[in-house]
Fold F-box domain-containing protein.
Amino acid sequence: MYTRVYKASRRLKNGVRNDGDHTNPTLPEEIIESILVLLPLPSIARFRSVCKHWRAVLSSALCSTRRTQICNGYPQLLLHNLFNNTLFCFCFSARKWKIISLPPSSLPVDSFKGPTGGLTLLENSKSTTILVCSPFMQNIFELPPMLSISYMAAKFIVKGDEKKPYKVVAVGCNQTRTANCIEIYDFSESSWRILGFIPGKIFSSQDLIYCNGLFFCKTSEPKGVEIYSMQDMRFISFVPLPLYFYSKSILVACTSSVFMVEDVREKRNITKDIIVWQLVQADSKPSFWKEIARMPSWLLDDFNKTSNVDLIRAWGWLNCVGAGDNIFLRRGSGSRNVLVYNLQEGDWNWLPQCSSGDGENWFHMSAFVPGYNAEGTRSFLH
């Protein structure tokens, strides 16, 4: 048996592939699917090229649905080393960090944005060019220039319907900085179109998130969150911030809900509390913010020690992202110390520190739920 496995792997390495007709005809289809769907995504990406039979199984709608159900319970955290362009991925199912090799791109990559379904957007701060990447499939695709946006504020990958599984949504200013434009890239038509405009100023991606077909825009005058409907092309409601809210905050979307992480400060600009709020939305009543968690004082002390105190006072760095049932927090934009708040369990836990071997380099943090959608991935990247 070992000799056969060795010879088969050697034939694959030399570029000789088995035809689908040579797979075991006595093995039931549901058994093959049950085994393949449980494999890690990098393995699935490789096995799609093994034979026609396996490729057909992995491309089926049922296999994609089952794979998505499995992935939804295992979000992954990405730390991108900006100095050597290395991507570290923490897998919750294996409870360890892994290194993902990135495919070569036409631009230096600063960060990852708007990930969903196993796809992510690569960002370069000095360019408005958008790259769509599938780290597990090792593919990358450069989108054409946008129609109006010259200064990017935020961008997302959003899910569509079965015929158009994913779309890219970009929000930013035009060249004269007089309006915030929303543009959508449709992969079935390979072109951008202008969806509409958002009034007011959007300073960064932390002031704007996307969730369930709605944009949530944080405003300063008055203080609150405007909710903008992509379908209706208008603002549909305004949610004031909590009455005693007076500190820095970050919007986070996960579990199809919107959350806000508040960094409560004292007069000396030292963090006093970190509070997690959930936006409660109801059809018949106005939306409001509900406090769901507060970081314990003993944990807050440890959390603040993970970054330079002077930097915290000067800049107030609090970095948060959401995926699955988890909100990931860290102090400082380059820190490798990541704290996780689980929305279902209501507890706080530290992740094992990422051992990059490069000292205290600058790391960009992103989180996503790895998914496998064969048709969607093919329409994007093939």
